[in-house]
Amino acid sequence: MIRFFVPTALATLVLVGACRQAEPPAETVKSTPAAPFEAPRLGVYVTNETSGDLSVIDATTGTVVGVVALGKRPRGIAVSPDRTTLYVALSGSPPAPPGVDESTLPPPDRTADGVGVVDLRQMKLLKVLPSGTDPEVVAVSHDGTRVFVANEDAAKASVVDVATGAILESFSIGEEPEGVSVQPGADRVWVTSEADGAVFVIDLSTHKVVTSVKVGPRPRSIAFLPDGSMAYVPAEKGATVTVVDARTLKVVTAIQLGEGMRPMGTAMAPDGKFLYVTTGRSKKLLIVDTATNAVVSSVEAGARPWGLAIAADGKTAYTANGPSNEVAVIDLEARRVTKTIPVGQGPWGAAFVQRP
Asked: Which residues are the signal sequence here (predicted)?
């Protein structure tokens, strides 16, 4: 089961990859975490699902400067609008990758479920908010007062009050909800359902699910144009990205990514000109021109890239490559990997933060 992140103008998620044949090989950077440490001015924050912690990368030097202990299975990560707080989905459900007989798995530890709150000024986990069962991906409201959680096992999307820690309400979403994103410029939250092959749209002003829109099989995430006018939803088993008009809630087109592509994570360039798509086992970062809705380039990012973060200036992408326990650093202008950075075990989600 796979993970996602909510892009914003200052903390966006992105993926990247392959060196051109003529390019020199990527540099591998090894680093020893420092303790205690301060959050870097330009930081990349990576959740490590297996080791249960957060790797903090100084984007200027390309080194890990510290590690924060989080809890069980940290996956989705989101940044507060004021860039002072990280929210991380923590789950006590045992990992159940495709092909595993879930009846053979140990029982879930529901005491481990929640949303971790990490203070970037103190660089520590402050508390864990309630979340509903098996939280996988989180998003933050425009005003920073609420966190939206996809609860995969429960087929629910929860709304959590940041100040009180109360679950304000929950919405029934199709089976296996995963991706969750807040629509720019609107009071709407979009949630993907892997099992239903659809994206559900919640209107927060009316407290109702407005509709569900059929996309491709096993949708993983949602990215928006900066003005919120179009949504892009990848289908891992369909090798497509469905483009949805966010005003009419109608499908515009399905972008064909090519045979063998398994799209998962998505992130929009800050200027909206390109959509970046990670492809997991296909190892690629795909680059889509949003003016033509066509794939214009690809980069080999490494082993199973999923979570991605893009720098605030739109020039660099970072992909969480789970099997190799590393983050790939991608020059988006040269379209090549420039280095890899060792992190914790099972990197899953990534976020870029430029501190105020």
From this structure: 1-22
Distance CA 230, CA 236 (A): 20
- The 10s digit of each residue's pLDDT in 240-292 is 999 999 999 999 999 999 999 999 999 999 999 999 999 999 999 999 999 99
How far apart CA 279 and CA 301 sit, in angstroms, is 9
Residue 14: inside a domain: no
- The conformational region for residue 283 under phi > 0 = left, psi -120 to 50 = alpha, else beta, is left
Domain count, the chain: 1
Residue 81 to residue 10: CA distance in whole angstroms? 8
Specify whether the backbone of 53 is left (phi greater than 0), alpha (psi in -120 to 50) or beta.
beta
Is residue 1 in a domain?
Answer: no
CA distances from 1 to 194, 218, 304 (A): 9, 10, 13
Give the range of the structural domain holding residue 221, as residue numbers without chain letter: 27-354
Residue 3 lies in a domain: no
Residue 80 lies in a domain: yes
pLDDT at residue number 35: 59
Give the domain CATH number at 239: 2.130.10.10
Residues in the chain: 356
pLDDT tens-place string over residues 65-81? 999 999 999 999 999 99
Per-residue pLDDT band for 7 (boundaries 50, 70, 90) equals: very low
